Amino acid sequence: MANRAGVSTATVSRALRGLPSVAEGTRLRIVRIARELDYTITPSASRLASGRTHTIGVVAPYVNRWFFGQVIFGVEEVLRARGFDLLLYNLADATSRDRFFDAMPLRRRVDAVAVLSMPLTEEQVAALSGLDVPLGLVGTMADGFACVRIDDVAGATGAVRHLTMLGHRDIAHISGGGPVTHSFTTPRDRARAYRDVLAEAGIGYRPELEAVGDYTVAGGERAMSALLSGATRPTAVFAQSDEMAFGALRAIRHSGLRVPEDISVVGFDNHELADVLELTTVEQPVAEQGNLIARILLDLLESGGDPPPTTVLPTRLVVRGSTRPVRTG
């Protein structure tokens, strides 16, 4: 078929798999000839011929949490359109992470790897680099990797500054930190922004107005309940994720208080339920981060070369009904 189309076998393969670097006219000619010959490309033959698996590995610390599910969806959406499969590894604890990096089961099974919001040690970076395939990170950065992320500091700064501009001074903070967060940079960056904005507004930092919510609804509810039982009742709260904010909303309601009349609440993510619950939040493009890292890895696989510079996607504050100026008197 390549001879009849006047192109190489590699061009035929790229055209039939919908890959880039094929002129549209050439692609249409190849597709027409394939139909005339009743030709179909078989995955096994294609993989043997190319030496590739047509599979991208995705490594995540959680797969049952909204953020990671959305990023994985974004990755899979692009891979499916380009004829690639996704091989997912869920490293939910230290034991599974150690076992994974010791055994490196991705070897010879994938053409590229994306690691989702999981900071890597030097040894782990070396283990992945030894695969000699394109490597990508979402939510963090490392040398030799294509990186896609948001500016967590800027996003959290906008959220807390919104509260200070509404006159709030007793501003609580529900963080996602804790002993099982795999040294994520996100909780630290958002916590730093919270404290910096307080200082900027002349508000003293009070540790008693911070509580850990573990990025879950239940954790957010527990954290908010603890904050409400403290000596100083906050007039506003910044939660580092919408899921923790949802839990905070439930705790506030169960305590007999109202949002935003008694307490204003700001989240982070713009989860699809945020609009339903009238939650003011920081919108980040979650699935788009998965889309983008997948496209970058496939492009690197096709063209070779070094990873592009880190891509920082924008966030924006979405103001809804869960925040209002502080009540006086």
Can you tell me about this structure?
The structure is a single chain. It contains 13 helices and 12 strands. It has helices at residues 2-5, 9-16, 24-36, 43-50, 66-81, 94-103, 122-129, 152-165, 185-200, 217-228, 242-254, 272-276, 286-303; strands at 55-60, 85-90, 112-116, 135-138, 146-150, 171-175, 210-212, 236-239, 264-269, 280-283, 311-313, 316-318. It has a 6-stranded parallel beta sheet with strand order 2-1-3-4-5-11, covered by helices on one side. Helix 5 (66-81) runs parallel beside helix 13, helix 8 (152-165) packs parallel to helix 9 (185-200) and helix 10 packs across helix 11. The longest helix has 18 residues, at 286-303. The chain starts with a helix and ends in an 11-residue tail after the last strand. Mean pLDDT is 90; it is low at 43-49.
Report the portion of residues in β strands: 15-25%
Distance from first to last alpha carbon: 82 Å
Q: Counting H and I runs of at least 4 residues, what is the number of helices?
A: 13
SSE ordering: HHHHEHEHEHEEHEHEHEHEHEHEE
State the major sheet.
6 strands, parallel
**Shape, per Cα inertia axes:** elongated
Strand adjacency order, main sheet: 2-1-3-4-5-11
- DSSP strand count: 12
Radius of gyration: 24 Å
Ranges with pLDDT <50 over ≥5 residues?
Answer: 43-49
Structural class: alpha/beta
Give the overall average pLDDT. 90
Binned, the helix content reads 40-55%
